[in-house]
Write a structure and sequence with these properties.
CATH topology: Rossmann fold
Helix content: 40-55%
Number of strands: 6
Largest sheet: 4 strands, parallel
Length: 310
């Protein structure tokens, strides 16, 4: 028995890390103005300089075989950090998942009801208002959350003492050349939307360690006949066709429209182009134009409504 305990003690000493010993986890680099990294004293000090918060609204959904399920949340969060540091405002992520029922055919996707998402963000905002924050930039990083984001903004403005804006809509006119700031679109007369080259390029710049272009392949796209016949008009920029196309495209299987991701694409990518055509440089330009426009908006808002106004 004594020999057994000696062996057991030696095993414990060998496998148990000592205090201060390095772990296999990557080191966490503290980000200033990033709420999860801050102490309550640091938040109090920030409130002396700024009463503004940026809140990214993302999703946990499939992004093909080459991008992580957290693409929307992570890209939105990284952009929010860049804006928060440059504009000296609080960065406060609230939720990972968003509304993504049309991606549930692919493993790993998590979706929440729109009503629940609204309530969570509204209640979180109320907490921040109680601490003294007043102005809120809601940064939507997932196209499926667009309507929810607008409703969150309106509810903050209608139901609380806070003041909120939809950042993507607000900075659009401020971007030089009115560049398309969304993560999806059509280029070179090809369908190139979810997990396509715009979103992959942004990811290559913002979260490069999580992008695996070796697994990127062109998807086989299958659209309902009436949407397929409508697509050339969409690609030509017809605003009516685009509105109708997106009203039907990428909807839950339960709607019977036949346009969920699993029904339209073999890989989860909703586009004809191969994502391996993406470039980090394109992602950099997209990000810098958005961040610069956002900081300009922050400066103007602070000038129009300085901190301290009740």
């Amino acid at each position: 028995m004594r020999q057994y305990f000696s062996v057991l003690l030696a095993f414990i000493v060998f496998v148990t890390p000592t205090v201060g010993q390095e772990t296999f986890l990557p080191q966490i680099e503290k980000i200033s103005n990033y709420l999860p990294h801050m102490t309550t004293v640091e938040v109090q000090n920030l409130l002396k300089r700024s009463d503004m918060v940026i809140i990214p609204v993302g999703a946990l959904e499939q992004h093909g075989p080459h991008l992580p399920i957290g693409t929307d949340f992570l890209n939105g969060l990284e952009r929010a950090k860049l804006i928060g540091i440059a504009g000296d405002i609080l960065v406060a992520p609230i939720l990972f998942p968003g509304q993504s029922p049309y991606h549930m055919g692919f493993k790993g996707t998590i979706t929440l009801p729109s009503t629940l998402i609204q309530e969570v963000y509204l209640e979180a905002t109320k907490s921040l208002i109680q601490h003294g924050f007043k102005k809120f930039l809601i940064l939507n990083a997932h196209g499926g959350n667009a309507a929810i984001t607008r409703f969150i903004v309106d509810r903050i403005n209608q139901e609380t003492a806070g003041i909120a804006v939809d950042l993507v809509s607000a900075v659009g006119p401020l971007i030089e050349g009115n560049t398309n700031i969304s993560d999806s679109g059509e280029t070179d007369q090809q369908l190139d939307r979810h997990a396509g080259t715009p979103e992959t390029s942004n990811s290559m710049y913002l979260i490069p360690e999580l992008v695996d272009l070796d697994n990127a392949i062109a998807a086989d796209i299958s659209l309902p006949d009436h949407l397929a016949s409508m697509l050339p008009l969409v690609l030509e920029g017809d605003p009516v066709a685009r509105s109708v196309f997106l009203a039907e495209g990428l909807k839950s299987e339960s709607t019977g429209k036949g346009t969920s991701a699993i029904e339209m694409t073999t890989t989860g990518v909703w586009g004809d182009r191969n994502p391996n055509e993406s470039t980090s440089e394109r992602g950099r330009l997209n990000t810098e134009s958005f961040v610069n426009a956002s900081v300009h908006f922050i400066d103007r808002w602070n000038a129009l409504r300085p901190i301290g106004i009740p």
